[in-house]
Amino acid sequence: MSFTTIEHAVGGTRLVKLQRLAAHTNSTVLLKLEGDNPAGSVKDRPALNMIVQAEKRGTIKAGDRIIEATSGNTGIALAMAAAIKGYKMTLIMPDNATDERKSSMRAYGAELILVTREQGMEGARDLALQMQAQGKGIVLDQFNNPDNPAAHYASTGPEIWQQSQHKITHFVSSMGTTGTIMGVSRFLKEQNSAIQVIGLQPAEGASIPGIRRWPEAYLPGFFDKSRVDSIIDISQGDALNAMRKLAREEGIFAGVSSGGAVHAAIKLAEQYDNAVIVAIICDRGDRYLSSGIF
């Protein structure tokens, strides 16, 4: 008799319909609940895939230490994946990450190194590469590793296509590493090139966990702007307002970037007739409680 393991619980998340927030439109807004993954976010998919593929190539082996720069969700997912596979994990992140994120990483056995908010993700990425050069571990490099978008091409995209009954007209996703939008866009446009792919970035001055406006020198290496039909700037206020409404009026408890995705999806629903819009709900809201945003 064989039984499944936690590794096989990654993916296969539900796609659900907004009941009230888009009821004033004649379009359908569907939400992909990635918080249902074992470590609680969409990042479970690429984190596990990066480790599995590195094992297959012989890049990492039993007893190795993995080092990664992260703003939160990828770090938690990598800490989980490393625990599943038996690797040591060092995560480098800005010190303004929520306590829940830091505690979750430590719960999975990861070692944390904090850089200042001013150093940010760019500083964390530089330190990770410096430590690798010093022989302190191996960097998977979520920002340039093609196994990141490949995870979404192999799983997230096909799931959305099937669950939407091939009717999806628009796909909305926040852009952090851009792995989700790159992988899903590639798959969906192979099925129907007319599907519109909309990326989200924070408006100037906004600070939304999981969404970035990258300086040109730090743009993820696999980002291909031709795979994104349009980019929407999301304000802090709009993201927070939609996030709170999502919990209070739909019963979907999610993070700030998910609020931004829902805000954008509703705006699209108001612009187009009979559209079928799928938005990624990146994670769960309990990861942000200590920040007081609810």
TrEMBL record:
Domain Tryptophan synthase beta chain-like PALP: where?
A: 7-283
Q: Does the keyword Transferase apply?
A: yes
What are the required cofactors?
pyridoxal 5'-phosphate
Q: Does the keyword Transport apply?
A: no
Q: Which UniProt keywords apply?
A: Amino-acid biosynthesis, Cysteine biosynthesis, Pyridoxal phosphate, Transferase
Superkingdom per UniProt:
Bacteria
Which pathway is this protein assigned to?
Amino-acid biosynthesis; L-cysteine biosynthesis; L-cysteine from L-serine: step 2/2
Question: Which family is it part of?
Answer: Belongs to the cysteine synthase/cystathionine beta-synthase family.
The protein's name in its UniProt record: Cysteine synthase
> From which organism does this entry originate?
Rheinheimera aquimaris
Q: What is the lineage of its organism?
A: Bacteria, Pseudomonadati, Pseudomonadota, Gammaproteobacteria, Chromatiales
The gene for this chain is cysM
